[in-house]
Amino acid sequence: MATALIKKLEGFVHLSAEERDALTKAASERVRRIRAREDIIREGDSPRDVNLVLEGWACRYKTLEDGRRQIIAFFIPGDMCDLDISMLHEMDHSIGALTALTFAEISRSTIDRLMATYPRIHQALAWQALVSAAVQREWTVNIGQRNATERLAHLFCELFLRLRAVGRTHGDICEMPVTQTELAEATGLTPVHVNRTLQDLRASGLIVLKGRELRIPDLAELQRVSLFHPNYLHLDHEGAQFDANGGEIKPVVE
């Protein structure tokens, strides 16, 4: 159940078999399945658990009073929808399924126990939270500064690399079950503008988008066009010093 999460965390630390088993157990205790366009939790609800995406795609979003929606983040397998969300009294945003979704509800007490028992898991979850904040900053730059072509191309680069990090790509192909309307809601463009921009990206040979599948023939070129730098994803195994096979483990900071 926790394969994608383990792959993701092992981009930062080397986990032991015991640590992997502990994560798998935590992700298997309370598993829920919902349909596309159903919500995991809505704005105004009182959060209790940390939600871990196991299969399918979800998003974080805000809706204005007139019905307009802004997607603030995409969640793919291995993503936790806000590690510290249970500390809030009331949700200030919603989390909804974009596809049929399987996710684990992990209690705050289970998260606390994992981090107290396994310092490497604590380090890795803290790293994931920092990366999530970095992705959010990059999305702000994307909407505020990049043009339409750069916005969509940048988003495709990000999603491809995130999927590749959890073993969800096949060569230069990844799943892309996001509609043009959802792409518009994530990039601050209109659906019509998204449609035109996708046509331009296809015509230039930068992407092949067919059905629910995206192919990027030349990732380096797409990164160049979109002014994409992967540093904010921190995929360079920064926690290699926390090796489960004998490396240094920093003490848990209370």
UniProtKB/TrEMBL annotation:
Keywords on record: DNA-binding, Transcription, Transcription regulation
Sequence ranges assigned to domain HTH crp-type in this UniProt record: 146-220
SUPFAM superfamilies, A to Z: cAMP-binding domain-like, Winged helix' DNA-binding domain
Record-annotated Cyclic nucleotide-binding domain positions: 11-79
Alphabetized Pfam families for the sequence: cNMP_binding (PF00027), HTH_Crp_2 (PF13545)
PROSITE patterns: CNMP_BINDING_3, HTH_CRP_2
The keyword Transcription appears for this protein: yes
Superkingdom, natural source: Bacteria
Single GO MF annotation: DNA binding
GO biological process: regulation of DNA-templated transcription
Keyword Zinc: no
Protein name per its UniProtKB record: Cyclic nucleotide-binding protein
